[in-house]
Specification:
The protein has 23 helices and 22 strands. It is α+β, with helices and mostly antiparallel strands. It folds into three domains: about 220 residues, Aldehyde Ferredoxin Oxidoreductase,  A, domain 1 (4-Layer Sandwich); about 130 residues, no CATH class; about 260 residues, no CATH class. The longest helix is centred in the last third of the chain and has 21 residues.
Length: about 700
């Protein structure tokens, strides 16, 4: 078996209580993570168009070859299956999670887990090396995440903490089990249900926690005593030292706590309280902290303990107001109002008390909680407000019912989400100057021409096309539409960039499983030419672990194969070009993200508007979505702020045509063609689509 892999995948059928093994080797070409998960789903889920709550839904839990090693950002995992959150169709989807579970699963000797069927009563799965037991979870059902995990820990180890040697047959360990667990949200089939590992680390997107609840699966615990074979340990350590010297992050001070990371990583991006009892999350979780309860729990902690997706509850644009809070302030929602808010105290919105009341109402499907637990799109539709609130931007849901994620001016974010099945939440798209420099003043100093030249050399194999990074748009008066269509955001060049990143992400981020906070690393302020670690980072680590000699371009081609497999699944679920649209507000000034995500005080006059070239020492914006972008005008490149960008419907339609052509899909339907699928070794996929009458026509 190739180094980096254990050679076996655990397959569990909850209906029959059976366990079997899938040979990893037959799926190894897909890398791991999402790639293997997608391929297994294709093979095992006979009806791809089922609901996520259907017992026939196949759920995969897959680390990549990096898991269990010291690769920074490499100990991650993908969960795949038909989700329940997307609107209006429950697409086959993915969710990514870090922490320690992926490493422990590999140490136990498994490359992944496949879950099928539905148990007749609540269960949890207990994995200790090659010993797998489906345990009774009746006593755990209804418990909050932390309580359930603590009880599972006690049952597995016979103790409440770790640090001493624990005998396990003829082996022993100082570790305790790593646990994936749902809360009352998932148990009660909420479309916002999460799968938690610890408290702050979670698989949040897609509603997969509700899928676990529908299968009566409370948790999976794994404890391993083995190790991972590394093909070239010397090269692995040398590559880590090289990366650490360039982009290693020093821990930031945390009041009454400390900074922590996922297993093996040097980027300490999470914070943990001194007690260790509550939040160790990051990013949007840290924005929702007001009014803690006396025991120290914040609203963020409460959402995690109940197993709800806080982002989809709270939204991104906190400074601009959250949807339900806006409705409350408008007098539309409240006690006795057209939308009755009982039993949630909306007058205490944002507090921990409000959060706990809301979670209880959603978990019990009580009052307004019964609507909100279905997600804001379905709730708004029930209230008769969906059409008007999407048009005005009151409801910021741009992609399949997901909250937009700093979508504009970086159009690759909404375009990629539109042709995917969910909001992609990939941090490269907050600025093409991303990488180790998120929020760093150095990136503002690079002239636009030098930036696009550097980037165009990194997008292997589609190199030397600087217009892939041109952000020309139509401007409010439409005067710049010709440039936007020819080289800017609606051009074939931008279509090529989105295709590159869909393929890059499917393999390197979601299958090999590098953290998207690190990769791709475009920019390094410490390098003489400011060029970041991509593409060398991705291949050096992968080859050191596996012993392969994978080129960067070969990885992109593998990503294209995985992407087309996913596309075929969505086509069988009903996907068509005419469904791939954005919310109406994206085509109005309300679509600009900058004014709703800039959490700083207002900038000094001219600060954001000043091109980076003219103001190299000026402080950068807090979030890089507000950064000036590269535009090509009058034969020259310049950095220009695009703070008020919005999209044009005809322009987006042209972009879609360019994109489908580049992918080798039918431009009328968006369906893959036989030529494209067979070129990727997916003849059986083409045969299935043809039998279903959904194979794209070659032009």
């Amino acid at each position: 078996m190739t180094a980096g892999y254990t050679g076996k995948i655990l397959r569990i059928n909850l209906t029959h209580g059976s366990k079997s093994i899938i040979d990893t080797e037959q799926y190894e070409e897909f890398g791991g993570g999402h790639g293997i998960g997608s391929a297994i789903f294709w093979d095992l889920c006979q009806d791809k168009a089922i609901s996520g709550y259907d017992p026939r839904n196949v759920i995969t839990i897959m680390p990549g070859p990096n898991a269990g090693t010291c690769i920074p950002g490499g100990n991650r995992m993908e969960l795949c299956g038909v989700g329940t959150f997307a609107y209006p169709v429950e697409w086959f989807t993915r969710s990514n999670i870090g922490g320690f579970f992926s490493s422990m699963l590999k140490f136990a000797g498994w490359d992944g887990i496949v879950i099928e069927g539905k148990a007749s009563k609540p269960v949890w799965i207990n994995i200790i090396d090659d010993k797998v037991i489906i345990e009774d979870a009746t006593g755990l059902w209804g418990q909050l995440v932390n309580t359930a995990q603590a009880e599972i820990w006690r049952r597995v180890t016979g103790r409440d903490s770790f640090g001493e040697w624990l005998p396990l047959g003829d082996k022993q360990t100082t570790q305790g089990p790593s646990i994936l667990c749902i809360g009352p949200g998932g148990e009660n089939l909420s479309r916002l249900g999460t799968i938690q590992s610890g408290i702050g680390v979670s698989s949040s997107e897609g509603g997969l926690g509700g899928v676990w609840g529908s299968k009566n699966l409370k948790a999976i615990s794994v404890l391993g005593t083995g190790s991972i074979k590394i093909a070239d340990p010397v090269a692995l350590i040398a590559t880590r030292n090289w990366a650490n010297a360039l982009i290693g992050q020093k821990p930031a001070p945390v009041p009454n706590g400390r900074q922590v990371s996922c297993a093996g990583c040097f980027w300490k991006c999470k914070s943990r309280t001194q007690s260790g009892a509550y939040q160790d999350g990051m990013c949007l979780r840290g924005f929702y902290l007001t009014d803690p309860l006396p025991d120290g729990r914040t609203a963020s902690d409460i959402y995690s303990l109940y197993g709800f997706n806080m982002n989809e509850l709270a939204g991104v644009s906190l400074t601009d107001g959250v949807y339900v809070d806006k409705l409350y302030k408008m007098g539309v929602l409240g006690p006795g109002k057209p939308i009755d808010s009982s039993p949630v105290p909306f007058e205490k919105f944002g507090s921990a008390e409000y959060a706990e009341s809301l979670c209880k109402a959603m978990a019990n499907r009580e009052g307004i909680g019964a609507d909100l637990t279905e997600g804001l799109m379905r709730a708004s539709a029930k209230w008769g407000r969906l059409e008007q609130d999407l048009a005005s931007g009151l409801l910021h849901k741009a992609h399949w019912g997901y909250s937009w994620h700093w979508s504009l001016p970086n159009v690759e974010q909404p375009f990629s989400s539109m042709v995917s099945e969910r909001e992609i939440v990939e941090h490269i798209f907050t600025s093409p100057r991303n990488g180790s420099i998120l929020g760093s003043p150095e990136f503002m100093k690079m002239p636009a021409e030098k930036l696009v030249d550097m980037l165009s050399k990194k997008v292997i194999p589609y190199t030397n096309d600087p217009f892939m990074f041109d952000y020309n748009w139509q401007e409010p008066d439409g005067s710049n539409m010709k440039q936007a269509l020819e080289t800017g955001i609606y051009s074939e060049h931008k279509a090529k960039f989105v295709a590159w990143h869909r393929h890059y992400s499917r393999f390197y981020i979601q299958s090999v499983l590098y953290c998207d906070y690190i990769c791709p690393c475009w920019f390094d302020p410490q390098a003489e030419n400011w060029s970041g670690l991509t593409p060398e980072f991705e291949t050096r680590f992968f080859n050191a672990v596996t012993g392969k000699n994978l080129s960067f371009a070969e990885g992109i081609e593998k990503g294209r194969k995985i992407w087309n497999t996913d596309r075929a699944i969505w086509v069988l679920q009903g996907r068509h070009r005419n469904m791939e649209n954005l919310a109406p507000f994206m085509f109005t000034p309300a679509g600009s993200s900058v004014k709703t995500i800039d959490f700083r005080p207002p900038p000094a006059p001219g600060q954001i508007e000043s091109p980076a070239d003219d103001n190299p020492e000026g402080p950068p914006p807090l979030l890089p979505g507000a950064a000036p972008q590269a535009v090509y005008k009058n034969g020259q490149w310049a950095s220009v702020a695009q703070a008020n960008m919005y999209l044009d419907k005809a322009g987006v339609e042209q972009w879609k045509t360019h994109y489908y052509k580049f992918e080798g899909w039918d431009v009328e339907t968006g369906w893959p063609t036989r030529n494209t699928l067979e070129e990727l070794g997916l003849r059986k996929v083409a045969d299935t689509l043809q039998k279903a009458g959904k194979l794209g026509k070659a032009k």
